[in-house]
Amino acid sequence: MKGVDLYSWKSKDGGIHYALLDGTNRLKTPDELVSNQMNIAELEAKMKKLPEKSDILWNNTVGVDHELELNFAFPSRFMIQKITNFAHNAHSSLRLAPKSNHDVHL
């Protein structure tokens, strides 16, 4: 497996949604992300099921076709730390995509 891609975006009601998908060499579509969207509890449960030492790449627009159709956003720093802890507890690594323009450090 190529690793796992994590995406987060803000919905129209202001909530943050997540998608955790197998890494591939192709662009993801907004429909693909939305059809796999989950809340924070579902994200934690899915991360717990990952194989140990999984490489999780938090993408946010990198590798998404038609990225303007979703309002990509990171959650609060508190939630970022919580998700980082989920990855650590699952014995996985979490890193930010290198082309991301966001001021977030994991």
Feature tags:
single chain; five-stranded mixed beta sheet; alpha/beta; globular; 26% helix; 106 residues
Largest sheet: 5 strands, mixed
* The number of domains: 1
Terminal Cα span: 23 Å
Per DSSP, the total helix count is 3
Strand content: 15-25%
Instruction: Give, in order, the helices and strands.
Output: EEHHEEHE
Number of strands: 5
Described by the principal axes of the CA atoms, the overall outline is: globular
- Nearest-angstrom radius of gyration? 13 Å
Percent range of helical residues: 25-40%
Uncertain runs are none
> What structural class do you assign from the helix and strand content?
alpha/beta
Average predicted local confidence, pLDDT:
85
What does this molecule look like?
The chain is α/β, with parallel strands linked by helices. It has one domain. It is built from 3 helices and 5 strands; from the N terminus they run ββααββαβ. Strands 1, 2, 3, 4 and 5 form a 5-stranded mixed sheet that branches. Strand 1 and strand 2 form a beta hairpin.
